[in-house]
Amino acid sequence: MKFFISVDMEGITGLPDHTFVDSKKHNYEHARRIMTNEANAIIEGLLKKGSTEIVVNDSHSQMNNLLVEELHPEAMLITGGVKPYSMVQALDETYDGAIFAGYHARAGQPGVMSHSMTFGVRNIYINDVEIGELGFNAYVAGHFGVPVILVAGDDGACREAEALIPNVTTVAVKESITRQAVKTMHPKKSQALLTEEIQKAVDNRHLVKPLIPPKNPVLRIEFTNYGQAEWAALMPGCEIEPGTTIVKFEAKDILEAYRAMLVEVELASQTTFC
User: What domains lie within the chain, and their CATH numbers?
Assistant: First the structure.
């Protein structure tokens, strides 16, 4: 069996605020180790169930957070920030299941450090379905017929996963009090729980159907201000919906929509405050 693990950071055990997920802040190095140990806990469980190939994709910020020398030696690591498919780089039809760890709720929703890709994004829609990073990544997995069998993160991420993916296994390693405060498990306890729950998820993977994306999806991204929408709409094929900060792009498939989203949010980040 072959499994794909996408590891974000905001939903990792014990991390309450930006000082743990920003490489320039004082708590970051400590958080990297917790993040790596959490990935290892999932890897251990997959190996106990007979997995023969495990690929881990670092999926936070510059995507070079996981400590390669401390990652389980049986896993392969994808690291580095310039990747055509970002958080789902290398995910394809050869995998038996995908695991999303360290995930958070989408923008505008309750949850620790909730957001969608960047803080300039207010909402993302595929057709009429509102999604965040979790949903978009699950759609890419579904494009390849791969089910998302486990989602781990804060309680907001778990609620979001359960609403999108029937029968998915979720592990809430912390409970959001506010956007920058949590009630959290001890990392050792959450790691033991993840090792246990991923084994159950592997056993129950036949109950989880891939989240199949629509054909010819319409990507709509609502930005925080009009300047961001103007920058994003510079990408060919994009247009601003009149009277809004929503940029629309009609894609041939979910993969094109995903890459369009990456380009739009990068362009929008050029906007200054004034």
Answer: 2-118+132-207 (3.40.50.10780), 218-270 (3.30.1360.130)
